[in-house]
Amino acid sequence: MNEQLLQRVRQCPNLPTLPTIATQILALSQRADADFSEIARIISKDAALSGKILRTVNSSFYGRSQAVGTISGALVILGLQSVKTLVLGFSLVTNLNKKQSSGFKHLEYWKRSIYAATAARTLAARLNMVQQEEAFLAGLLMDIGMLVLDIVLGDQYGEIYARVTTHAELRAAEIEALGVTHAIVGGILAASWKLPPLLAVPIASHHSAAEVADPALKPLTQLVALAGRCADVFVEVDAAQAIADVRRQASALYKMSEADCDAMLADIGMRTKEVAPLFDIKIAGGADFEAILKKANEALVEITLQTQQQASTLQQQNRELKAKSATDGLTGLANRARFDEFIADRFAAIAADPAGGVLPISLLMIDIDKFKSVNDRYGHPAGDAVIKAIGRLLKSRARPQDLAARYGGEELALVMPNTPRAAAAAMAEILRRAICVKPVQSGTRFITVSASIGVAACEEGGPLTSSAQLIKAADLALYNAKNSGRNCVRVFSLKPQVKPDQKSAA
Ligand code: GH3
Ligand code: MG
Ligand code: MG
Predict the structure, then answer these.
(1) CB of 409 closer than 6 A to ligand 1?
(2) What mean pLDDT do residues 227-240 have?
(3) Rounded to two decimals, what is the model's pTM?
């Protein structure tokens, strides 16, 4: 953040000031016993302002069937908040419109502001938001930092402004050249005017709405930020990207369909056409969304296709990344993390629905016998070849619902959902036999190994009820197999163990 520039902004002697009438109305309306007749009296003294307010109140923007003839009438019928907003909006626009410098294009500035204000109010109304008036005013003033930078930096800001063609580019160019954005600067002005947070925060954070933490201020800030993008649809030369962004954000934030979003944009165009003259802002043509959409359609299709392409590439990359992070590099089996996840998922399914078909679930723990000596005799690469070969065997035997995993080192595992203990023990015996009868080729050598296998099962009504217990039980059975002389299968049971002279049990 460019503190020096911010200091210059704070100390600038000719910053725009809040018009006297706006200050008075703000102060009066903040009192608990706000006196309507006093407020009406102050506003009515300014004939031009009162005229504008009454014309606005009676425009279709407010959609009132019955005409309002006096400021006190407007206060009663529309409420203090609406009238206060109009006083602030009108008096500020009149005041600020006078100041002009080279480079920076005031007309463009006000055109975007009135579109943004109308968009914010239209959007707030569609969402049935209470703060429709604040939305309008925050939309109108959100870019006021641009005026401040124009005043403080003069031609330097004019040059930055002249280089860019879109509002998003302007923000990036400000950060690059100045180290601050017009939003931050607008926030400083809002603070010096003592605007309430519902106005000050959307002004200061309309380019970083996602970072606003206060739940009372975030919705309005997000809405105002989107309103700015709605304004871009009408003021930027190339509307396609803005339309695509508005559709995407309206769907993400408010679940708005594309048709609803387009209808809203058309509504914003029509309303702005009506409101802009009340603020003495010329918007010329360009308010017709149908025409804009027609012109942008080809580019929009292109953007949509590109976005879809990017999304599917990203999905593919995510899938690949996920598969990679779940796979053991040596064997291509599931790794330990995937094993843990798989088994946890199965037990979560059992907890949710015990009759859901996962139970009984069996687990085989397979540990290569005297593997250290294989490494010692034939070398580590030969040891790797053995682990890989047993991994391939395990994979070829696993059914689609099973998970074959490398549990760690020379220990592999097979998770068998929907498999009773006896079937798992039979599978273990098939694997044990296949391992010890087929030597593994490594270079010119053939290496014969054996493995010990522990089996455990979680069954309905059985003693094992969690994944941790199942793993522990299979481990104990494996330990038992090692103790029984290796190259055998042992099945966990709480009943007395089978006789030690039995090499294999099912
Ligand atoms: P036991 O029958 O009791 O299981 O004896 P063991 O030698 O297999 O058991 P121990 O746990 O003492 O040794 C396991 C050996 O496995 C030690 C380690 O160097 C080796 N090992 C673990 N991971 C790998 C690997 O990825 N590649 C190779 N080549 N060796 C490995
Ligand atoms: Mg071993
Ligand atoms: Mg071991």
Answers:
(1) yes
(2) 94
(3) 0.63
